[in-house]
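Dear colleague,

Thank you for sharing your sequence with our group. We've completed the structure prediction you requested, and as agreed, I am returning the results in plain text so they can be pasted directly into your records. Please verify that the sequence below matches your submission; if there's any discrepancy, let me know and we will rerun it promptly.
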Amino acid sequence: MRRLWVANCNSEYMVDRLDLLDRRELEVTPVVAARMVWLLRDGDAMVMAQPLDRAFVAQVGALMGFDAQKIDLITPGDAGVRVLDQEVLHRPALVSRLRELVAEPGEWEIRGYLSDRGIDALARALGLGQGAVSGFDAAGGAELFNSKTVFRAMAAGLGIPVPDGAVCSTRGDLERALDRLAAVTGAVIVKADRCGGGAGNLLCRADPGIPMSGTLAVRPLTGQEDRAAILAHTGLAATHAPHGQVVVEVYHPGCRSLCLEVDCPAPGDGPPRLLSFGEMLMEPAINGFVMPAQDLPDPVRKEVADQALRLATSMRDFGYRGLVNIDAIISPGGQVWFNEVNARLGGGTHLHHLAAHLLGPHWARHHVLVSRDDLPAAGIPQLLSALQDHHLAFDPATATGVVITGDDTLNRGTAEYAVLAPDLPAARHLETRLRPLTSAAAAAGNLP
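Please find the predicted structure tokens below.
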């Protein structure tokens, strides 16, 4: 069956207020969408906000075993589009093109970054028929599990440990939460209910020496003026939440950030299955992964995995099918708290997928993957050539090397990469060879 993928990252069903999405998040949305190319196979098609460098797609096809010429990558043809919201997806010219596509011989199924109500509306517009999207997803079920407020209620019901916190719907809620929670560590983190990649997070700290992690936004928390600025940031009113509810939690400095991906299968296909267990590199916001997570005590690893599977099982029992990405933190003393779940593709989905294809389904038993999102690069063709010339490109014979996993060269002058190696020291060594090479070349405006 052929698959029509829709890169609906940061749609109006994924974030609280699409019109308030910050500039950084808008800029990186097409980059997040580009990661979905790793999931394609011959005959698939994908709708994206912006076109991709064909050299990047060809590299992905060569590694993953699909013919890049047999992939349809469809865009609205509008340089200003960053998000595939419903207004964009239902433009007559785009709908007409997609109808022609799905009219071609063969059966089609539709998949999205998030299986939301918009995917269901598009499926109906294309004539894919009722049932192309599950009734649960068509009713907003998958969207439900991307809410931090829903997550906290679910975790409380299951007895899953979460940081002490509060869900705030009004200005008074937030003022009382700040008074109570800031006394624990001197810092709190204020989170938008629905947002991705830490973009909706605000660290509020009494001591400027408390390190940032998980956010790029910070405000002092020392006086009434500071509190007024925090209240203004959230947009909360005396009686309601015009920009959406917020979650306020005690901020625990020095924690490691863990990420797990679980597959929730259909009934009869077995219980939820843990696919990957990684650590997010917070520098200070997420800038990559180490997979699998290294140097975790066995009891901690088991606790995190067991609790993640409990969360996923609850979601599956409620009606959800598909991938679940679950975030947790671990304190220096070994205390585990869970942060959120996301019922959609995640930042590490493509990394596990490519590693499993290149190294085998149990790759994490004998290899380590290190990824980052900020490799200086003038362009993908030059970068791929440099990797080959300096013997850094992934080599199937040695099962080691660098893979370019994403492209943001036109926007920020960077690319995303993953290093595959038998162990973490070997992966770090490859990084030390890679970064000076590309940094110097990008600064000069070219690559060897």
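Summary note from our side: The domain at 164-250 is CATH 3.30.1490 (Dna Ligase; domain 1).

Kind regards,
the structure core
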